[in-house]
Amino acid sequence: MTARILVVDDIRTNIKVLEAKLTSEYYEVITAGSGPEALDAAHGQKPDLILLDVMMPGMDGFEVCRRLKADPDTAYIPVIMVTALGDPEDRVQGLSAGADDFLTKPVDDIAMFARVRSLLRVKLMLDELRMRERTSASLGVISPPVPGLDEDYSDASILLVEDNPRDQLRLQRMIEGQFRIEIIADGAEALGRARQKEYDSVVVSLGLQTPDGLRLCSQFRTTEETRNVPILLLVGPDDQKQLVKGLEIGVTDYVVRPIDRNEFIARLRAQVRRKRYQDRLRDHYQQSMEMAVTDPLTSLYNRRYMASHLSTLLSQSASQHGTAVLIMDLDHFKRINDTHGHPVGDEVLREIGNRIVRNIRGIDMACRYGGEEFVVLMPDTDIDSAEVVASRLLHAIGDKPVTVKAAVGELLVTCSIGCTSSSDKDTADTLLRRADKALYEAKSDGRNRIVYRRSDESGA
Q: List-wise, which residues carry 4-aspartylphosphate (predicted)?
């Protein structure tokens, strides 16, 4: 994914080195040579991530980070502190100021890009939730407050997955009194427990045997009930390659052994703070908007909200991929209502809505467009990627009959799909019209198929 990154350092040579490395990976780079310049750039240019040097004259990186995190306009920008300091106390100070991660000079390229990609994935998800909050605000709903750095986390529930008895005891003593902790030695048992109970964070030992630590992290990320829980990985000083892989598969933070107690607690607090903020965003959004913006039959978003959200996506997106739109229409749905009655038709619509939600990403949005039509909005998605989702949805709907409660039993339902992706000139209306034309072609060509229409095709 592309992103705008602010590099802050008082030494011009250091800026040039980082700028060259980031530009080679197609990131847009902006720079600042002091703390005040960094604050101005963060407000004026809204970077997606900040690489912040610690040792700067006047205003050091710790103070810059504290000011960024205290300001509602910049509090959500991930900050990676770049420092020559290796003392755990310095990392604790940075984490207490709100830093999301650290890089030690000289900066290792592989480690840097792994951390950058990991934090950008998290920010993309939070940006989508906040964008939905802004859409909600336009409909008269007030957004929740900015999370504070001084909240009480003593009731936070931490799951520790560690099979070494000595390390279990050592880590338990570190955490006791700060959080509520449960310890499990077997990874499969831990995953099963986490599917039944919500935790504020999961701590996984890389040296776990059953299964190995990285595989367990991957399973947490691919399991619906646990995919959003923060994962803190315990690694050794020589585990750099495994750590990079862990960040790529969704680990949100890490601690290097031997573990410093204060740093461990500070990192856990940061993860719990982010998790609770995400939860508040989701809960507030769902509760306040349920009646106003959802379809009462399918519980998907309704047409009014979808149109407003699509306009927001198009006006604020900086993605080079644009926003993809799918319009889906159930084939011959009128026959179901005419033959079996509207209650059966309603059961079918509810099940189709569920299948759509289960087969799209968390940042995508599904809505009931009207009648038997559905729309899926996919931010940061080009038409080639949208084709994969469209094909998956076509098969998810048409390959398995819908079971209804009535005596009818099972009904085979198929759909036709029109797919397109936005260009710089698109509005919500032009994008929806193009997708609708593609849907009309799919229905005219025999139904149960997908038609793709690019923005540069004639008639678009």
A: 53
The mean pLDDT value for 120-141 works out to 74
SS3 181: strand
* Residue 114 amino acid letter: A
Rounded CA separation 5/51 (Å): 7
Range of the domain at 428: 294-452
d(CA 157, CA 160): 10
Print burial letters for 406-442: b (CB count within 10 Å at least 16), e (below 16).
eebeebebebbbbbbbbeeebebebbbebbbbbbebb
* Residue 351 appears among annotated catalytic residues: no
- In this structure, the answer to whether residues 20 and 101 fall within a common structural domain is yes
The single residue of 372, 373, 441, 457 carrying the catalytic annotation is 372
Q: How many residues does the chain have?
A: 460
Q: Are residues 277 and 299 in the same domain?
A: no
Query: How many other CB atoms sit within 10 Å of the CB of residue 158?
Result: 23
| Cβ–Cβ < 8 Å for 171, 160 | yes
Last-in-domain residue among 255, 285, 315: 285
What is the rounded distance in angstroms from the CA atom of residue 28 to the CA atom of residue 49? 11
State how many domains the chain has: 3
Instruction: Give tens-digit pLDDT for 263-302.
Output: 899 889 888 988 888 888 777 766 666 667 889 899 999 9
Query: In this structure, are 307 and 279 located in the same domain?
Result: no
